[in-house]
Design brief:
Layout: E1 2-8, H1 10-13, H2 20-31, E2 35-42, H3 46-59, E3 62-66, H4 77-84, E4 89-91, H5 93-105, E5 119-121, E6 125-127, E7 136-141, E8 144-149, H6 153-168, E9 175-183, H7 188-194, H8 196-200, E10 206-212, E11 215-224, H9 227-245, E12 249-250, H10 257-267, E13 272-276, H11 282-288, E14 297-302, H12 306-313, H13 317-323, H14 328-342, E15 346-352, E16 367-374, E17 377-384, H15 389-411
Parallel strand pairs: 1-2, 1-3, 3-8, 13-14, 13-15
Antiparallel strand pairs: 4-5, 6-7, 7-8, 9-11, 9-12, 10-11, 15-16, 16-17
Helix pairs in contact: 2-6, 3-4, 10-15
Protein name: Putative competence-damage inducible protein
Family: Belongs to the CinA family.
Domain MoaB/Mog: 4-171
Amino acid sequence: MNAEILCFGTEILHGDIANTNAQHISKKLAEIGINVFYHSVVGDNHSRMREAFELAFSRADLVVCTGGLGPTQDDITKEILAAHNKVEMVYDEDSFNHVKALYGRLNREMPESNIRQAYFPKGSKILKNNNGTANGCLMDIDGKVAVLMPGPPREMYPMLEEQVIPYLMKYSDGVIFGKKFVVTGLGESTAETMIMDLIENQTNPTIATFAGKGRVVLRVTAKAPTKEEAEELIKPIEDEILKRMGENVYSNGSDNIAEHSAQLLLENNLTVAVAESCTGGEVSSKLIDFPGISSAFLEGFVTYSNEAKMRTLGVMEQTLIDHGAVSAETAEEMARGAALKAGADIGLSTTGVAGPTGGTAEKPVGLVYIGVYYNGKTEVRKLNYPGLRATVRERSANSVLDLMNRVIRKSFK
């Protein structure tokens, strides 16, 4: 079965919200072996919505729609499905009571317009919405399946996983399973060149590379009758990637470098303190996102000014006079100072010119120094990142975490 994901909503086209629904649906369909060939987004325009629906069914067996199930006149997704299948809209008492009960719980009177949410194409299977007023529906006619779900992710996600995916399992001809390998310290073209022969000879599994946030992600995907068989197909490729990439690759399946950092700290009973200048707290924030990190993360210092670096971290005034805040020497003293101040095993530091202003010929925008202090020694690296302020900060945060990971892995070999 081949699928198209069709999302309705002008707010998506205007960029007010990200279309995370399509991403989530694609992942879930891939897990049961259903191929997604197209993503489409259409604004709240009747004629364009109808055209998009007809086009989707002309080239896909399964059309999964989100949005357009509300009580207003623009919410016509169900009417479009009814017209496509040449059936009438019929009233469903259970759906009406569902909407009425939700309003009752909020001690609010249900607007008359909400009765629209109780009408569905005749013959459709109604999908109950346990997290909102808009029930969805599903129509399966001669192997062509339409699924209509609400737009809000907190309503759509559980409906998809609890009701839609189990129904679609009968159309599954296997599973599509993928593993991610995160490569740091190498550019995308370099990483791709190192495995080019594997890419050129790929059939099943397939290998895709994409870059961003200072790392390269290799995704290896296999299709097989079961997940276990797919994993077996991936294993030889996995072994070869790990062999070729060596210390530059993470292999636990997550593309979040901070997650690897948190796991390494916890597994090795290490504590960390972070001193940040140009990243302004991003390194600390990335670590704190990981559940259970409180036993490893002791303290974070955002020492943006020279005075803060001296007062809080013990950076020497002469160091700042001789070398400046953006220097290897300052990064070294910041990392050591963070560890000593907090009583941590490891100290991290970032200092740089994030831009877009403030750079000089000697110290241009994008120049960053990162430091890792551990076991009485400090390792410092000089980096130069192009891009916007947010990009420089993001990549610097990932880089100092990656450097820490390398230091830990080297020490615990």
